[in-house]
Write a structure and sequence with these properties.
Blueprint: E1 3-5, E2 7-9, E3 12-14, E4 18-23, E5 30-36, H1 39-51, H2 53-57, H3 61-77, H4 79-90, H5 94-117, E6 122-125, E7 136-143, E8 147-150, H6 158-170, E9 174-177, H7 183-193, E10 203-205, H8 213-218, E11 224-228, H9 231-240, E12 245-249, E13 255-258, H10 265-280, E14 292-296, H11 297-312, H12 332-347, E15 351-354, E16 358-359, E17 362-363, E18 366-369, H13 376-379, E19 386-392, H14 395-403, E20 407-408, E21 410-414, H15 418-427, E22 432-435, E23 451-452, E24 455-456, H16 461-468, E25 469-476
Parallel strand pairs: 1-5, 8-9, 8-11, 9-10, 11-12, 13-14, 13-21, 14-19, 18-19, 21-22
Antiparallel strand pairs: 2-3, 4-5, 6-7, 7-25, 12-24, 15-18, 16-17, 20-23
């Protein structure tokens, strides 16, 4: 598959002075050629977004909703084509890429629905005190200004959608910077947006390289930054612009807890299958993939061999093959990093039960036990197809093990006990607790984000719209209430 894309600027196609090839992490073939915007073209896009901000904020809801509905429909119509493009530039197995397109279809549909009902206004009577007699407060939300959205490589379509769709729904102009490794999926969204009647300047897709990102981050005309990516880069952005509004989704090392009551053969088979699938889907390159399994001693000895067998049953290979479960990582360098972390852990005393082998950009699905606490794998987000299994005694020890991390994005708890579910919700220092399943479940309309070093703010269409806007109160006087 080879395609050529320029970048999209202020609602029209533009051509930069230099091109770069996007290559497949699976076989190194050229997937597409992308034009880099010049500094002058970036300035044109930012200036246009800043100039149109008041006009766009005043755009009727039906206009913005119609544009979002259009993108949703067009994504659905082009599902197979776009899924193949995601798979080619990212290395994601095509069956997972189809799911990503389906999620993006939903994101734009949710945003269209929110655009129609957002900001209807909340009335509050003020005559609860004598000084407020005859007065009524009406509170509405208005955009803070132009949003700079910075998206990662691991969900190159859907996480771009999570930047674009809420901004359009809220009437906030957007500059989107897709990941340099996977710009083509974001540019597809530019093609679809260019088919709508949104005002020129209300959006631009700019695949600038990372070394040119600081200038955008520092630009005072972009008061809102929505970043999804690494902890190091995210906090560096926030520290560099302390007076801007930043939302950061920075990842985690997701834990799946299996409590003692999840004990039947059927229960353990299901837990093992879900753990194996979601420690390895996307090549483990998901911030809510299963990295840690915390199993009660009552079920550990029966669960562990099931996990190993389920992991070994994952089909690895060509991401273009519908049968493939696990494709390559985004680059050979990424696979080399994972390899070095596993080797460090094994040298320190961890037991390697399966996997632990690299072939180019591919890394075999891997299971470890007895992971020493001081190793990199125990402390950091692996972002690869690697999981460790830990034995604990009792619910309290299990929950403490989950919290023994600088991250707190999501956790899964396998239990049938409703009281244990509520105790988990209270005890676990994470942004989301999933009962009866792995931590890897995300519905695109729900608030999504974490605690501790997993970031600040929330994604999810309505919740991102809140981040992109602020409350403004109108007080009406002399009313006969």
């Amino acid at each position: 598959m080879t395609s050529t894309h320029a970048f999209w600027l202020a609602g029209r196609q533009a051509t930069g002075e230099s091109d770069f090839d996007v290559t497949s992490p699976w076989d190194g073939t050229t997937v597409g050629t992308v034009s880099l915007p010049t500094d002058a073209q970036v300035e044109e896009a930012v200036a246009a977004a800043y100039a149109v901000r008041e006009e766009f904020a005043a755009t009727p809801a039906h206009t913005r909703a119609a544009a979002l509905d259009h993108v949703s429909r067009r994504l659905a119509e082009r599902t197979e084509e776009i899924a193949r493009l995601i798979s080619a530039e990212n290395g994601k197995p095509v069956k997972w890429a189809r799911g990503e397109v389906g999620r993006a279809v939903s994101v734009f549909r949710f945003a269209a629905e929110e655009a129609r009902r957002f900001n209807g206004g909340e009335a509050q009577r003020l005559d609860t005190d004598a000084g407020g007699q005859g007065r009524l407060a009406l509170t509405r939300r208005f955009p803070k200004g132009v949003v700079l959205g910075i998206a990662p490589f691991n969900f190159p379509l859907n996480l771009c959608a999570h930047k674009i769709a809420p901004a359009i729904a809220a009437g906030a102009p957007l500059i989107l910077k897709p990941a340099p490794a996977t710009p083509l999926s974001g540019l597809i969204l530019g093609e679809l947006l260019a088919e709508t009647d949104l005002p020129a300047g209300s959006w631009s897709i700019l695949p600038v390289p990372n070394d040119r990102m600081p200038a955008l981050v520092q630009d005072e005309r972009l008061p809102v930054i929505s970043f999804t990516g690494s902890e190091t880069v995210g906090y560096a952005i926030m520290d560099s612009v302390p007076r801007k509004h930043c939302t950061l989704e920075l990842g985690g090392n997701g834990a799946a807890v299996v409590l003692a009551d999840w004990a039947s053969d059927e229960d353990l088979d299901r837990a093992a299958a879900r753990i194996a699938t979601f420690s390895n889907y996307q090549g483990g390159q998901s911030c809510i993939s299963v990295q840690r399994v915390i199993a009660d001693a009552a079920v550990y000895d029966r669960l562990l061999p099931r996990i190993v067998a389920a992991v070994e049953a994952q089909v690895t290979g060509d991401p273009n093959d519908d049968a493939t479960d696990v494709g390559p990582l985004v680059s050979e360098a990424a696979a080399e990093r994972v390899e070095s972390w596993v080797e460090e852990a094994v040298t320190a005393g961890a037991k390697l039960l399966t996997g632990g082998k690299r072939d180019g950009a591919s890394y075999a699905p891997t299971v470890l036990t007895d992971l020493p606490a001081g190793t990199t794998l125990a402390r950091e987000e692996v972002f690869g197809p690697v999981l460790s299994v830990q034995k604990v005694t009792g619910e309290a020890e299990a929950f403490a093990a989950v919290n023994d991390s600088k991250y707190g994005l999501q956790a899964g708890v396998f239990t049938h006990d409703l009281q244990a579910a509520f105790r988990a919700h209270r005890a676990l220092e994470v942004g989301g607790v999933v009962i009866g399943d792995v931590p890897s479940y995300r519905a695109d309309q729900m608030p999504y984000g974490g605690a501790k070093q997993s970031g600040v703010g929330r994604e999810g269409v309505r919740y991102a719209m809140d981040d992109y806007t602020y409350e403004r109160v109108l007080v009406l006087t002399g009313l006969a209430l």
